[in-house]
Write a structure and sequence with these properties.
Distance between the termini: 51 Å
Bound molecules: nicotinamide-adenine-dinucleotide
Number of domains: 2
Oligomer: single chain
Number of helices: 10
CATH architecture of the largest domain: 3-Layer(aba) Sandwich
Length: 296
């Protein structure tokens, strides 16, 4: 049976460290703060934002909740981001994605000052990540790196196969794993929707990371015996027996992989809790920089 990598437990230990550092910093007059901006009322986005604000509160951080209606103009949203850029209480800015269709996501992300880019989606920070320089790394890929480290899994010289090439998960994750030093030094293959013979690639993986957004895509026959599997996928499967009318399923056949994989992350309770933890981590990192600048 595969060992379950408990993301909740790892995240909870990290959050306790973050909470302690937050208190120390707040004691010197710098309380880390994140502006959370939500446009519209998409139920999944509302639940993500609620979870993030709860985590901020538990960590002792300041959260500035700003909501705009679905009909808000792009300029209005950019003005709000600029206000947050100028607000000294705000160390990080998070604009919940996706945005309504009439708003250009790229322009909005560009308007966030790179030093307040808690989500790590600004091209400046993504460019630095690609160059192997310190920056704000996107939370889900960075959370996966931290999860592997906390579980004592080295990546040096290992063959990591990532399924998914999105700019928020697959691509930054590939760059982190390719970087030099701890959490990096891996040999990386990135597969995507145009990859021919997916299983041929996934079977080569020492560490297989599924981030395709396709429920149950990775089956036991696609996994090398003893491989470690990280399941990033969050797919809603209609389920009348659940209060919400759905249950969550990852991109892997979790049950089927039990007899093949050495370790595997569950969905929920694997990568998800790490993602929010890294948002706190990035906010704290930005606040520390503010503290250094103000000599606190
Ligand atoms: P996306 O739709 O932007 O990208 C999906 C990627 O998978 C694409 O690059 C596509 O080429 C590839 N892909 C799709 N079908 C494929 C197939 N059959 N074979 C090979 N490749 C295929 O999605 P995303 O934003 O990168 O998210 C991926 C999944 O991870 C989603 O389920 C999302 O909900 C989940 N996610 C979870 C967290 C978390 O915190 N747990 C965070 C971000 C995303």
């Amino acid at each position: 049976m595969a060992e379950i990598l408990d993301g909740r437990k790892i995240a909870s230990a990290m959050r306790e460290d973050i909470r302690r550092e937050t208190e120390r910093l707040a004691g010197r007059g710098v309380r880390p703060g994140l502006a959370v901006i939500l446009v519209g009322e998409d139920p999944a986005s509302v639940s993500y934002v609620t979870a993030k604000e709860k985590a901020l509160e538990e960590a002792g951080m300041f959260s500035l909740d700003r909501r705009l209606p679905e009909s808000a103009a792009e300029e209005e949203l950019i003005r709000l981001v600029e206000e947050c850029n100028a607000d000294p209480r705000v160390d990080g800015i998070l604009v919940q994605l996706p945005l309504p269709k009439h708003i250009n996501e790229e322009r909005v992300l560009l308007s966030i000052h790179p030093s307040k880019d808690a989500d790590g989606f600004h091209p400046f920070n993504l460019g630095k990540l690609m160059l192997g320089q310190d920056s704000f790394y996107p939370c889900t890929p960075y959370g996966i790196i931290k999860l592997l480290a906390a579980a004592g899994v080295g990546t040096r010289g290992r063959h990591v196969v990532i399924v998914g090439r999105s700019p928020t998960v697959g691509k930054p994750l590939a760059n982190l794993l390719l970087g030099k030093g701890e959490g990096g030094d891996a040999t990386v293959t990135v597969c995507h929707s145009a990859t021919d013979g997916l299983a041929r690639h996934t079977r080569q993986a020492d560490i297989l990371i599924a981030a395709a957004g396709k429920a149950g895509l990775i089956t036991a026959d696609m996994v090398k015996p003893g491989a470690l599997v990280i399941d990033v996928g969050v797919n809603r499967i209609p389920d009348a027996s659940k209060k919400k009318g759905f249950r969550l399923r990852g991109d892997t056949d979790f049950e089927g992989l039990q007899s093949v994989a050495s370790k595997i992350t569950p969905v929920p309770g694997g990568v998800g809790p790490m993602t929010i933890t890294m948002l706190l981590y990035n906010t704290l990192k930005a606040a520390k920089a503010r503290g250094r600048q103000s000599g606190q």
